[in-house]
């Protein structure tokens, strides 16, 4: 069982031919509302792969957006367990995502600064899970939830937590170079991960989009890994969350680290074929076939 803690929101995805300059204008060519948020994205992928998963995040918020978000959750067969313990219903987080033809995205949000209002993490004490994963967007609640999960003996997979004091030794940790500030520099990424592992004692993954990623731990050589080629890049939204879901899918079944990394990297690249983070999750069969079709990449993971 995997317990996913963190952000649940509406992703309002808009397709544009390009981003306008300051004071400019551009016509929106397509628009859709999708389930979003790092936690919901990861939980949705795990559920689609038939892994036992629980989702615990911010309140879905007040109508009408809250009603809409609840419907998006139910359509994916997901339940937000925290809604049983929310004392104050806050504003629904909504992320406006503008996607250009190269698959890159620019995001604007509302309601994210109030996600912690009324949210209690105490019920996590009563939840049973082998793995716990979280991202830092709900700030103090995330810190407390990680401490509860760690105290309960859950295995930790932490994403984008940049305070080494919040990353217990022996946990798994993932971040992108956008957060670390080392984009497009493999050697710098290797050094960054080496320093991070020395500080935390974690298994660390630092992803660099189309450049692949660096990973390692005190017991696993720290080195760079190549990306699997994406058949087409439509939208990169949620690729990191899909990578995290892929890692947890393998770890929860006791796979060897190279197999987890291969599955995660392939899931992340195949996600980019579709708009939004939850509209299409690559199937296990698609992931395995993509790995088989690219042995020159797969062989570099061992």
The overall average pLDDT, rounded, is 95
User: What name goes with the CATH superfamily?
Assistant: Ribokinase
- β-strand number: 12
Radius of gyration: 18 Å
Helix and strand content put the structural class at: alpha/beta
CATH class: Alpha Beta
Helix tally equals 9
The share of residues in extended strands comes to: 15-25%
Report how far the terminal alpha carbons are from each other.
Answer: 27 Å
- Give the name of the CATH architecture: 3-Layer(aba) Sandwich
Largest sheet: 8 strands, mixed
- N-to-C order of helices and strands: EEEHEHEEEHEEHHEEEHHHH
Strand order, largest beta sheet? 4-1-7-8-9-10-11-12
Give the oligomer, counting copies of the same chain as homo and different chains as hetero: single chain
CATH topology: UDP-N-acetylmuramoyl-L-alanine:D-glutamate ligase
Form type: globular
Could you give a quick summary of the protein structure above?
By secondary structure, the protein is an alpha/beta fold.
Characterize the structure shown.
The protein is α/β, with parallel strands linked by helices. The protein has a single domain, classed as Ribokinase (UDP-N-acetylmuramoyl-L-alanine:D-glutamate ligase), CATH 3.40.1190. The chain is built from 9 helices and 12 strands. An 8-stranded mixed sheet has the order 4-1-7-8-9-10-11-12, with helices on both faces. It has a 4-stranded mixed sheet with strand order 3-2-5-6. A hairpin with a 5-residue loop joins strand 10 and strand 11. The radius of gyration is 18 Å and the shape is globular. The mean pLDDT is 95.
């Amino acid at each position: 069982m995997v317990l996913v803690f963190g952000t649940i929101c509406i992703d309002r995805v808009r397709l544009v031919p390009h981003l306008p300059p300051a004071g400019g204008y551009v016509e929106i060519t397509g628009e859709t509302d999708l389930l979003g948020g790092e936690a919901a994205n990861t939980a949705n992928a795990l559920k689609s792969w038939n892994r036992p998963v629980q989702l615990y995040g911010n309140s879905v918020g007040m109508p009408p957006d809250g009603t809409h978000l609840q419907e998006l959750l139910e359509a994916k067969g997901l339940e937000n367990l925290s809604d049983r313990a929310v004392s104050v219903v806050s504003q629904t987080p909504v992320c406006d995502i503008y996607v250009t033809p190269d698959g890159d995205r620019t995001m604007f949000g509302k309601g994210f600064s109030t996600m912690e209002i009324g949210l209690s993490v105490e019920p996590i004490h009563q939840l049973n899970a082998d793995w716990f994963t979280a991202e830092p967007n709900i700030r103090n609640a995330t810190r407390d939830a990680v401490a509860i999960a760690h105290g309960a003996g859950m295995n930790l997979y932490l994403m984008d937590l940049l305070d080494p004091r919040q990353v217990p030794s022996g946990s798994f940790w993932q971040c992108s170079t956008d957060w670390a500030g080392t984009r497009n520099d493999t050697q710098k990424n290797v050094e960054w991960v080496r320093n991070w592992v020395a500080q935390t004692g974690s298994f660390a993954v630092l992803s660099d989009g189309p450049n692949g990623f660096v990973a390692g731990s005190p017991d696993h050589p720290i080195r760079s890994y190549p990306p699997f080629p994406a058949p087409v890049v439509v939208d990169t939204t949620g690729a990191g969350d899909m990578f995290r879901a892929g890692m947890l899918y393998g770890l929860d079944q006791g796979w060897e680290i190279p197999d987890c990394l291969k599955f995660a990297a392939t899931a992340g690249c195949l996600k980019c074929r579709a708009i939004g983070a939850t509209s299409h999750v690559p199937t296990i069969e698609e992931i395995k076939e993509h790995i088989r079709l690219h042995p020159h990449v797969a062989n570099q993971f061992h």
